[in-house]
Each structure stands twice: as structure tokens, then as C-alpha cells.
Amino acid sequence: MRTPSLAAAFLAVLLTSSALNAQGTSPPPVDLVVTRCDGCAEWNEPQRPFRLHGNTWYVGTRGLSAILVTSSAGHVLIDGGLPESAPLIAASVRALGFRLEDVKVLLNSHAHYDHAGGLAALQRASGADVLLHPWSARLLRLGTSLPEDPQYGLYLPFPGLQARRELSDRDVVRVGDLAIIAHFTGGHTPGGTSFSWRSCEGTECRDVVYADSQTPIAEDGFRFSSNTRYPTVLADFERGHARLESLPCDLLLAPHPGAVQLFERLARRDAGEANALREPNACRTFVRTARERLAQRLTSERTPK
Q: Residues with Cβ < 8 Å from 207, sequence gap 6 or more?
């Protein structure tokens, strides 16, 4: 990794907003309706990239995660943020001294515009293979929401793309010596996918889990307790919860970094607490909170208005 010019490289690409243009590839145009995306500008604030542990790096924005897992044979990038996030993610990869063209595989947690919106531009710039949950693959071909999604109609369209391969549950994604396991953890969307892998720094290893969103958010009129659009939603949530709490997990990440207090923990590490990002019970705590929120949602649906 070339670290001496990290700050200068990162600052330069942010100031010019030309990380993808430098390769002759511009991010696809998108016309955001501001009233439908009040959080987009805040989500997309630039964030300096940093090492999480070993070969695992944060290259996302302030409010939307993108995770780079590296090897000498090529890299894996998980999630692409908003369409406007693609240049920032590309900038962060390069600022760390890596080549975007060495990203061999793109993965996605769930197919909403704030986590999959930048994938098409990143795929064109890198030439990477895109591997997706079958439901997400169908949605991404269209670049828009599908009726089974509890948030159908709430989210903006985004540039679509074709998956190179559809994943199966517990599929192992391999690039060189990397082995990243896909776990189907639906509920938030039917295609929700979490990922786990082992990352080592010398002799110190971490079991990393990138846990997909488990929040029961829906458009008006969708009921998690009873619906015909996504009738397996509660069973999917429970299967996902059970899977996540069973995984070896001492470094927990999520599509929204705030969901796991990532930057608060990073600040503690920067202040000298070397193991601030490590929490052996992180996944079980995450699932306990998710179950509580789902129970609250179900109670609210059954309470007469």
C-alpha cells in the first residue's frame, strides 16, 4: 500500500470530483427529487478512508458504508452507496493506494438506491463481476423498486446493471485467498444479504460480519403482521436474525455506519483504545435490538389508531 501521499491523493480527487472521469467513465446521470431524499446530502458527505483491520478497509461516505477487502490477486467491494457516491468511493480506493481496476467482485447488501445506486458506475470503471441475491439481481436489472419490497414506492430509481452470477445462501465468494460467505438475511428487503469473512493483521485475526439492515421500515399501508406482497417477511426476518446471532463476530459493520456506532468507535481507537472496533458480542447485541424494533412495529400495527 502506498501511504505517503494518501492525504494528498484523497483531497485531490474530492476537490475535482473526477475519480471516475479519470478513467474516462462518468457516473450515470441521476435527477434526485430533493423532497424524496432529505438525507442524501448528509449521507453522501465525504469520509476519509481508513483501515478497519488487516485487509479490510472503509471506503464509503459519512453515512453510507462501502467496504473494500483486498488481496494480492484482486479485491472485493461491498456496496456502492448512492449514484453520486461512486466518485467518492473510487477516490477512497485510490487514496489508499489501490487500483479500482483490481476490484474483481462487487457485492450488495440490499437493492435500495442508497446502497446499490453507485454499483453500475463502479462496475463500468472497474470491470468487476457483480454477484447478487436472485431477488436483488432482478431488481437491479430494472433499477427500480419491486412490489414485494416493504418500501416499494418510497425509493428513487437508480442506474441498473446485469449480475454476472446469482448467489445462493452460504455461497462462498473467492478472489485469490479471500473467502467471503454470503448469508441471506431478508426482511428489510426480500434480497437482503449479509457477508462474513476473516481478516488478519499479523497474527491477530477478526471475524468480520457485514450485517444487512434489519429495520422493519415500510411505506404507508404495508403491514409486516399480515400482507400479500411479501408474505414470508416475518419468517425471513427470523431466519436472518438467527443466522446473524450464530456467526463468529467480533468486528460488526453495517450498510449505515451509524447503525453500529462505527465512527464513535473509530474515535475511541484514534484516541488510543486499540481494540475499540472489536466487540465479541456485537452481532448478538445487533440482533437483540432488531428483534425489539420488529416487536414494536408489530405491536403498533395491532394497536387501533
A: 196, 198, 247, 248, 249, 250, 251
Count Cβ atoms below 10 Å from residue 215 Cβ, excluding itself.
15
Q: Could you give the CA distance from residue 169 to residue 47 in angstroms, rounded to a whole number?
A: 32
Number of helices (H), then strands (E), in the chain: 9, 12
Contact 194, 271 (CB under 8 A): no
Separation between Cα atoms, residue 16 and residue 37, nearest integer Å: 24
CA distance 268 to 277: 8
Does this model's pTM top 0.90? My answer is: no
Cell 453495517: give the residue: 254
Q: Give all domains of the chain, ordered by start, each with its CATH number.
A: 45-302 (3.60.15.10)
Whole-angstrom distance, CA of residue 214 vs CA of residue 299: 17
Q: Kindly state the cell numbers that stand for 256.
A: 449505515
**pLDDT digits 0-9 by tens, 255-291:** 999 999 999 999 999 999 999 999 999 999 999 999 9
pLDDT of residue 144: 80
74-116 pLDDT per residue, tens:
999 999 999 999 999 999 999 999 999 999 999 999 999 999 9
- Grid cell 446493471 in the structure block, residue: 161
Report the distance separating Cα 43 and Cα 63, nearest Å. 4
Confidence of residue 36 (pLDDT cuts 50, 70, 90): low
